[in-house]
Amino acid sequence: MRKYDIRGIYAQMEIDLIASMKRNLTRHENEEKKLGFKWPQWQQKKLEDLQQYKKEAAQIVKKAEPVIEQAVEQEIKGGFFAGIKRTAMKLLGKFMPLPRKLNIPDVSDENFFKLNEGRVNALVEATQGELKAARFAILRQSDDVFRQTIFKSQVYLNSGAASLGQAIDMATRDFLDKGLDYITYSNGRRVNVASYAEMALRASSQRAVFAGEGAKRQQMGNPFVVVSAHNNCSELCLPWQGKVYIDDVYSGGKASDGPYPLLSKAMAAGLFHPHCRHNMTTFVPGVSRMPEPVDNTEALANYKAEQRQRYMERQIRRYKRREAGSVDPDNQAAAAVKVKEWQGKLRNHLKTNEHLRRDPNREKILGGVSQAEHNELLKLAAKNAKIKETRAHIRSEAQPKKILTGQQNKHIPGTHEYKQYQAKYEKKGETGPSYLTIPPDQIEPLVKQYAGTGEIRLNNKGEWNHKETIMTNDAVIGKAVNNLTGAEADTTVFMIHYAKDGVHVVPAYPSLKKGKGNDGLS
């Protein structure tokens, strides 16, 4: 699955709101030209158009919500599990040969994940909550800007603006320059919502990786970590990079564990701040290598050059917003010139600082997300939401879990229904059906154990076929029969068929675990 561009999602939302604002501020323009412009009537019409704008704004924000929530869940849970796997591989011998096999649960240990599921879900929910609050802030600011524009335009027109269009542009200039910057930090600094969303998800994803690594380190009794060293580093992180620490934040370490400082002290002093790109990896004393040392003066100079690049990118986005949101054609043209001017400055800066790389996505007001990609993400989010809804239904009491005897007996040898089903296959020149080898009294407990945990598929219309494939069971439950060749195979895979009044179980071909299809079984 592709990595989500959270900045792009919010930037797309921002430019959609700007386009809607422009559309509503210029509505009735032809009518006004024809009948003659009268200011009180214009203000009244714009206040009426505000209601339409508020509806459009709410739709724009709502449309992005499922994509954002999917992005957060994928990024954080993916980071957590990646952290666990990376740490387990390192400590289980990929980097450190072990003299004997240790009795340590592997990455797929069910109990381990149950213990940590709560902390991961809490991190997902907290981040989703932060970004949801940001979306509410967007709607508040959008409403405020529209109202202020209606009344500020009169002031600018009276002050000498040549036309209503120019007056509107003057009234919206501050907003277009900064974009949606309703997010305010404790120090009073306001930040653009796309930048805030990117920072929030990056920080949460980093914490998820650290939490996954730390949980595995704690389980395996090694609290030592080494922080990466970059040749591009802020003053805040410079004293702390490239050193070994006892991880007392994520791995449960304590000062008595070894001759190293505590990670919590470095973090309290600024390490892993919201825009920090440092990471840390498991350190095995006597085995792991230390990072290559860097020149502090050079690292700081490189960082300042990169910050200058970020400033230039912000200027490019600033004038692109002006170009997109301006009503007056002359103002649009002037903004386009400024875009080219700042792009030229950026090119020269990159030539002077060859270690820097240009990122076109940071210069786009749409954040690098094409409409086609955006639509695909929406489809994916809708699909995942439907699967989540279906899974919740399966697990609820609304879906009966009792075994439907008539349907189930078709897959239990010796029953009347099984013999009838067998005869149907014989008439078609085929072999079947697949059958269960576990006792009938074990079927319902099997369903209750695995219902809602398997693969759920939707058709092109987004509809569920009322089946669920279970591939995580490890015990043989029956024989899968190839209808064409008659070949039989022991299988741990099965499908649960759901109906309004109950369920039945059908053995499935073991190759489904490897994604090879059902090989003609039924």
Automatic annotation (TrEMBL):
> Where would one find coiled-coil regions in this protein?
none
Q: Which GO terms describe its molecular function?
A: structural molecule activity
Top-level taxonomic group: Bacteria
Q: Which residues form the Bacterial toxin domain?
A: 405-507
The protein's matches in InterPro entries, at most eight in alphabetical order, are given as: Ntox50, Phage_A118_VSP1
Put simply, this protein is called Minor capsid 2 protein
- Source species: Paenibacillus riograndensis SBR5
